[in-house]
Give the backbone structure.
Amino acid sequence: MISRLSNNECKQLASLKIKKYRVQQQLFLVEGEKLVDEALRSDITVKAIVALEDWWQDKKQLTEKIKCLAASPQQMKQLSQLVTPPPVLAVVQIPVHPLQINDLQHKITIVLENIQDPGNLGTIIRLADWFGIDHVICSNESVEAFNPKVIQSSMGSIFRIKIHYTDLKLFLKEISKLQIPIMGTFLEGENLYTTPLPPIGVLVMGNESKGISPNLAAYIKRKITIPAINPSEQRAESLNVAVATAIVCSEWQRRNHWTT
Amino acid sequence: MISRLSNNECKQLASLKIKKYRVQQQLFLVEGEKLVDEALRSDITVKAIVALEDWWQDKKQLTEKIKCLAASPQQMKQLSQLVTPPPVLAVVQIPVHPLQINDLQHKITIVLENIQDPGNLGTIIRLADWFGIDHVICSNESVEAFNPKVIQSSMGSIFRIKIHYTDLKLFLKEISKLQIPIMGTFLEGENLYTTPLPPIGVLVMGNESKGISPNLAAYIKRKITIPAINPSEQRAESLNVAVATAIVCSEWQRRNHWTT
């Protein structure tokens, strides 16, 4: 059954554009056909689908399983954060994954300290998905993962990757106790391409402008660097954090899967 | 000598926020201490520095070499595209680099077809700089390199990398004639990690959503892919284009410089 989206409901959903209300209601919005489809195919809980009247044609199988709401173009505009409002969006429950440190024992895990740019976080979630990484652990100060820009740039991977927010100092202490290798990238460290890498472990990546804080660096036994070609004052000082994460994960998985 | 920025001059400079006027005047704006400093240290032509009255203290050596303008906070707000206007910005001439195909014979070059996101282009320019790549060749339809978001995300590398806009079909035809190897990334191709790579050549990367067009694919002899771990319907379908470019350049330069 499809019901009309009331103006009150619309107002309540539009409040989810703001982090405070996402946290309060434990809900977020997912915009556009492709992402809504990915949300429906994932394990995530979709609370409702909101779409234009027209969109509901031929969607009978959907209307039996889920709360379906028909919205006016004006209402879609109110709910959307895109320049061109999409015909459909989903109201999704923020997934909660209890962090079990033991689960990380035999895996590659990405740890992010204070990432601020939502595009960077979304891009890292997407590449984690590509490289078979299940968990991304963020410091409590990092940008919120259900920020619409993170969702857009994660391209659906946000529904598959388990994202946790925690105190990274305590987290790395626990990881050390379990003797899981801890790597991190620094401007000065062992050459990524020539240093031995353990097959599993956690990779710590730092804030966009400050890098990894001394606070966390103390726990990082394996400091690695991505060497520049012809480094000089006249070259880039660093790489974008999503790019650096990608390069390390690529080299790591290359050695695990494509060398003999 | 420092002169006051007149309201007329301010209006003219503010027009550089719009692509049409950047193209017309062949000028662009660079915001913030760090980028202005990088512009001054590069080979690029800085036409003027505009800064708040206070900023000009202790900048005597600068005022002898360059046109210096003092602006009010209100004027800086008019000129800036940032949420918090910076204390200083530079008016810079758009560099023109004639494209000499012969110059590319012994080099690694990045070729971008129809990249639309300015953050992606800026990030690719930054990583080109890191990996010792001198030229980035864009299709005429690509986002403009002097868009403020490209400049910000390139982090100063925009002043060092030579960026060209051209008809890529004609360009790849010329490259083929010179027998420079042409690689490109596709969802199906040779495994990047195990396929032999020539030490030099051009790397073609496609549009964010459509990839490389069939039009150009015909020229690409070496089709490569970055293999996913456990690919399945439940994994990311692709990688962000800047991330994919970084992974290929990293693997390429690893083989050129860090293997025996």
Summary: Residues 192 and 226 of chain A are 6 Å apart (CA to CA). Chain A has a mean pLDDT of 95.
